[in-house]
Structure formats: C-alpha cells, structure tokens
Amino acid sequence: MIPIAICDDELLHARQTQAAIRRCEAQAVTRCFETPLALLAAVTQQGYAPRVAVLDIRMAGMDGIELAKRLNALVPGCAVIFLTAYLSYAPDVYETRHVYFVLKNELDRRIGSALRAALAETAAPASLQLATAHGYRNVPVTDVLFLERILRKTRVVLTDGEELVTAAPAALLEAVPDGVFLRCHQSYWANFSHITAMEKDEFVLTGGLRVPISRSYRSAARSAFFANLRGEEG
C-alpha cells in the first residue's frame, strides 16, 4: 500500500484529485486534508508518514509551498507534487524540494506521470516512524533487523537496541517496497539486508541474532532467500 496525502482547501477539488489518483494507482491509500495545519498535525501527533503529498499551492493561511518546506523537514522521504489552477505559481515552486508541478485542468492527463516520478524518487523509504512511549522516532529502514508481533505489540529490533510499539507490522511497513522485509513466521518479519544465512528453521541475522522460520512459511521463505541471493550475485 502507498500512503498519499492530499491537501486542498476546496473539498471538491480534493475529491477529484483523490479519484484521479485511485484511477491510475491501485495501491494508493489516500487521505484528504482541508488545511495545511490538519496535515501537519497528522504527521506530528499521529505519526502519519505519507510517501507522496499532493499539495494545492493557493490555500488560505499557509500556502502549499510553505507546507512543502515543513513536510521536507518532518518527513524527508515524502515526495511532493504541487497542484494548482494558476500557471503563474510555476516559478515559486522552486523554493522547495518537489518532483512535479501539475495544473488542475490537466490533472487526469498528468497525475499518472507525476505519481510515477514521485514513487521512483521514494523507492527506498528513508525510515520507519515509530510511535514509542517517549514520542515519535524516525528509524532508518537499514537499522531495522526484524519485527516481532507479541500479542497487541510489535517489537522492533534495531542495530542499536529495540522499541515496543502498538502499530501492527503491516502498518509499519505499508510504505516499504515489497522485498525489503520477508515474513518468515506468523509473528516475524526479517529485513533482507540483514540476513546472513538460512538454516533449516531459522534465519541468521547481522550480529548473530536468529529469527524462526515456521513450517507454513518455510517454502516461500526459502524461495525468496535464494532468489535474493541470486540477484545479489548477478
């Protein structure tokens, strides 16, 4: 699933954008925000981390360019697409990092190309955002060894310790491309980049840690492991 934020203070336009995105990207999970402050609150207070943000430029209060600057700082892995009815705003978008500029009257024709560019730029998400007991923590994907689901909690084992969060593994990994983590057990997801060896019932990870491979996942885990190994050798 690909989390995509849409921010437009005209709800009708936001819904039109949402429909256009869904028509060209089946994996999109969109959320509409009517104000920049609502989107920023979702990021800072709820741990929302969109992979793509489609932002109207002309909005009351904070405009889309200022919103993009704040998103660049808060969610560095989020790609920004600017959307506007006014071509005169084109020079202003270069004040902040973005991947595309789309005129609203060209939405259906341009949004597919814009999304492809945005998703290509974010092919390897920079981090997982963890809602811990001490606040939100952004953790680089490369620092995550494995995830373990324990009752209603998820144990996130890192290269420098671990965190216990309430979010399910599926929610933590929804913006991570397929193939980065391998589910090898009903309760375990291992980071492919940290798997050093496969034994009959376990993966051996960086630092000698081990995660179990259950019987029901063994065949798929074995196939994925050796396919990945062949890819690295090639």
From TrEMBL:
Keywords: DNA-binding, Phosphoprotein. InterPro entries: CheY-like_superfamily (IPR011006), LytR-like (IPR046947), LytTR_DNA-bd_dom (IPR007492), Sig_transdc_resp-reg_receiver (IPR001789). Residues 3-119 form the Response regulatory domain. Residues 139-227 form the HTH LytTR-type domain. GO terms for molecular function: DNA binding. The keyword ATP-binding does not apply. This is Stage 0 sporulation protein A homolog. It comes from Faecousia intestinalis. The lineage of its organism: Bacteria, Bacillati, Bacillota, Clostridia, Eubacteriales.
